[in-house]
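One such shown below:

_____
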Amino acid sequence: MHRNVFLLLLALAAGSVAVAQTKISGMENCPKPSGPPQMVQVGDRPGHAFMIGKSKCTWPKPMEIGGAQTKEDEGTNFAEVSGNNASDRGYVVMTMSSGDKCFVRYQGKSILKDGALQSYEGTWSFTGGTGKMKGIKGKGTYKGKGAADGSASTEIEGDYQLPK
């Protein structure tokens, strides 16, 4: 009986090592988008609209994933705006220093003032990747602030696991 318990504990310990997560964090900067996002007013009340746009960003404080660093990314963003609040979701394609890519899905909330981004936060998860990043799994949180010039900076943290 004791041997079975020992073997079970050994198997559980080996399993926990196999799914170990690696912590990551970084900072992304996004300049003011080159063009305004596409916005469609819903029409049921003032300030209620759907918005879609793209942004290209760089990483002054890159995340390191599997020996490569985040270099740049492009996000496709969708938001439902209601006054000074927005519900956000979208996808990001991150290009690593190795040339591999990571795919990320996010969702969160933003605070606006007179249509200008003030702050935002939410959660994200990897949905896949290419090359060495193929099969990546992980998730985390993000928090950021908009600047008066239309740019934004985002602090990102979380964890990941690459397949063996």
